[in-house]
Write a structure and sequence with these properties.
Strands 12-13-15-16-17-18-19-20 form an 8-stranded mixed β-barrel, surrounded by 4 helices. A 5-stranded mixed sheet has the order 6-7-5-10-11, sandwiched between helices. Helices cover about 60% and strands about 15% of the residues. The chain has 3 domains: about 40-270, no CATH class; about 290-445, 2-Layer Sandwich (Alpha-Beta Plaits); about 460-709, TIM Barrel, CATH 3.20.20. Strand 12 and strand 13 form a beta hairpin. With about 700 residues, the protein is α/β, with parallel strands linked by helices. Helix 2 packs parallel to helix 8, helix 5 (about 140-160) packs across helix 6 (about 170-195) and helix 10 crosses helix 11 (about 330-350). The chain is built from 24 helices and 21 strands.
Length: about 700
């Protein structure tokens, strides 16, 4: 026959594979046979129960170890090592009790205890290694150590067993048992440390169960006891029954302790989580929901909204002049006022109505089941009435109004973000229109908000681009009508929008922190230009509150005067009351240092503040400027005339000159002259003008005066 070497080689390989398959199949059948025939079913079931409960507890504790840091981690590590080692040790000896052999006489106490120590220390060491890094091969290395600890405990426990004979081992089963515990030990650790699904924690417990069970039954299959007659009198051995009862009681106690500890920790964590979540959704000052809490309430309303005929109303509430209260009476009074208002608002709410504080002096009100615009308006009016009522803090009676913006679902937005944003835009419009108003959201408000953001961006670089200019408004004597001074006013020539109103860009500068930079530029520019005027009149420059609070402001003024050469007596700094009452003590010191330079200080917008009389008493002003609000009706309103006259009389008694702002007609001028006002400022003598026009006007006036002389 002609040989076929390739066929012969294939047949040989197949035969080898069949022999190996038959070999390992026989080994597996031997292990299963050992489990089924050589072990008592009742004790085997008990061992399985202990192993299953212990494995679940151990893997949960190991997962807790990996989630914890510092000293608490060490405590969890110790508990995990004790429970894990105790589980492995208890399972082994209960399974040994289940092993049916008349040749087993008992267990040596010292070696039995040693096996427990090996289990606890080995499992603890495995957890230490596996938890030392979040992601590393040390995780699987710890699993291998876990498996080797189980093997060491098992074979030490076998050594503790006293038998009437000699124990012989099949080396292949021993090697197989060690390999199995290392594989499944590493797998158990890996499933906890490297989870890929939510079921991995169960896979870790199953892997530990297989790890311990595979070792025991594989090793016991490879063990054979050769009978011999052994004298056990006074040997001090522990009987299997006694050991079993002790193991069961101890393990039950350990598992109970572990279960209670884990449950207490989970309950504490759950309670802490709820508490932290509650705190994160609540404003700590007023104890009403904060912005996030209000968003959650509104989101829940939107999710549960099923009635197409009803609406949800959202009100953004901005307290008017709250900053002045804070500045005048201190932050403590301001905080008490906010708490009192929040309690009143909450007390006024009915079913389906909620109040939140979204920051500073801004509140939000939410109402569901709104079926008409009238219902939404009534809700807003009720909120406004609550806020408008006087509030007494200590002995101080305070009364605030509010600018309220409203938005409704679904017309003005379908998400909580949009509804709150649109209500805030409407509130900003209400405040810009003078406050104390209720304004509903309109579609164009979004565009105006975007335009405001673009203006803020352009304003930031307007100075560098040369778009800013100082204009001057005349101040005149009421008798001679001569120019006595000018007020420097900032103007912005926008390359696209043209001349931007100061009423638009000054608030933007204040909101975005640019007012200090702009104020310094106006100060230096006005002083530099005033030096070259033909007539040496005074120049008044407005000082923002932020400038006055800035460190080094006095030095800045001194340096500007030195740099430009303007005599200090010609510079007049105008300060509003709101700019000084935030920290009156510091403001007094700054003003006194400015006056030591020779600079004059004027009080601007007199009559619009909270405590003007006390301010006049505390501060050394060189001039009082009556606000245009009182001047506009001085020739027609007896009340306005009386207020102006009272101010003039008071100022004369304090030897402080008075200037009236906003004079536009001859009738107003004549009335002010009759009341004793010496200086005026307003459109009657011209609108604010650029430097070139003012310079020409001053040169012409100087020439006319010289000719007349």
């Amino acid at each position: 026959m002609r040989p076929y070497p390739e066929l012969n080689q294939s047949i040989g390989t197949l035969a080898t594979s069949l022999r190996w398959t038959e070999f390992w199949g026989f080994r597996l059948l031997s292990v299963l046979s050992c489990l089924a025939l050589d072990h008592d079913p009742a004790f085997t079931a008990l061992a399985v129960i202990i192993l299953a409960i212990g494995s679940v507890s151990t893997m949960r504790l190991f997962a807790r170890v990996r989630r914890t840091e510092n000293d608490l981690k060490t405590l969890w590590l110790c508990l995990a090592g004790i429970i894990g080692g105790g589980t492995v040790w208890s399972t082994h000896f209960v399974a040994m009790i289940a092993y049916e052999s008349d040749l087993i006489l008992g267990y040596d106490p010292a070696l039995t205890l040693t096996s427990l120590v090996i289990a606890v220390v080995g499992v603890s060491a495995a957890f230490v290694v596996a938890s030392s890094r979040k992601v590393s091969l040390l995780i699987e290395t710890g699993g291998v150590i876990f498996g080797l600890s189980v093997a060491a405990m098992h074979y030490t426990g076998i050594a503790a067993m006293a038998v009437s004979g000699l124990i012989a081992w099949d080396l292949s089963y021993v090697i197989a048992s060690v390999v199995l515990v290392m594989i499944f030990g590493a797998l158990a650790m890996s499933r906890i440390a490297r989870p890929v699904t939510r079921f991995c924690k169960y896979g870790a417990s199953v892997s530990m169960i297989i790890c311990v069970a595979a070792l025991h039954y594989t090793a016991m299959t490879g063990m054979t006891i050769e009978p011999l007659i052994v004298d056990t009198a006074d040997s001090g051995l522990i009987s299997g029954q006694s050991l079993g009862v002790t193991i069961f009681a101890v393990m039950l106690l350990l598992l109970l302790v572990a279960s209670l500890t884990y449950s207490i920790d989970m309950k504490n964590a759950e309670h802490s989580s709820r508490h932290v979540k509650h705190l994160s959704l609540q404003d700590p000052l007023t104890c009403v929901p904060n912005r996030r809490g209000a968003e959650c309430i509104l989101d829940e309303m939107l999710d549960m909204h099923v009635d197409d005929t009803s609406r949800i109303a959202v009100l953004a509430i901005d307290l008017d002049r709250f900053r002045e209260v804070n500045n005048a009476y201190g932050q403590g009074v301001g905080d008490q006022l906010l708490k009192a208002l929040a309690q009143r608002l909450v007390g006024s709410c009915g079913e389906g109505e909620h109040i939140g504080r979204i920051g500073g002096d801004h509140f939000i009100a939410i109402k569901k089941d709104v079926y008409s615009r009238h219902a939404a308006s009534s809700f807003a009016a009720r909120i406004a009435a609550v806020l408008d009522a006087p509030t007494v803090i200590g002995d101080v009676p305070l009364q605030l109004a509010a600018s309220i913006g409203s938005a409704t679902f679904p017309e003005d937005g379908t998400t909580s973000d949009k509804l709150m944003e649109h209500a805030a835009l409407a509130a900003a419009r209400a405040k810009s229109e003078g406050g104390g108003r209720i304004v509903g959201y309109e579609e164009g408000m979004d565009q105006r908000a975007r335009e405001k953001s673009l203006l803020a961006r352009d304003l930031a670089c307007a100075q560098d681009k040369g778009e800013l200019e100082v204009y001057y408004q005349l101040q005149n004597d009421t008798e001679s009508r001569e120019i006595t001074g000018v007020e420097a006013l900032l103007r912005w020539h926008h390359p696209v929008n043209g001349m931007v109103s100061p009423g638009v860009f000054i608030p933007i500068a204040e909101e975005n922190g640019m007012i200090t930079k702009l104020g310094d530029w106006v100060l230096e520019t006005a002083c530099a230009e005033a030096v070259g005027w033909a007539k040496p009149i005074n120049v008044a420059v407005n000082v923002a509150a932020a400038q006055l609070e800035e460190q080094g402001f006095v030095e800045r003024v001194r340096d500007v005067l030195a740099k430009t050469g303007l005599p200090p007596s010609r510079l007049e700094l105008e300060i509003t009351e709101s700019g000084i009452i935030a920290d009156m003590g510091a403001a007094v010191q700054v003003i006194r240092r400015l006056k030591l330079l020779g600079v004059k200080i004027a009080m601007d917008d007199y009559g619009t503040g909270y405590s003007s009389l006390s301010t006049l008493q505390s501060f050394p002003f060189d001039k009082i400027k009556i606000d245009r609000e009182f001047v506009s009706g001085v020739d027609q309103s007896c009340q306005s005339a009386a207020i102006v006259q009272a101010t003039i009389i008071m100022a004369e008694s304090l030897d402080i000159p008075v200037l009236a702002e906003g004079v536009e007609t001859e009738a107003q001028l004549n009335t002010l002259r009759a009341l004793g006002c010496k200086q005026i400022q307003g459109f009657l003598f011209g609108k604010p003008m650029p430097m070139a026009k003012l310079k020409a006007l001053l040169e012409n006036e100087e020439t006319t005066t010289a000719v007349a002389a």
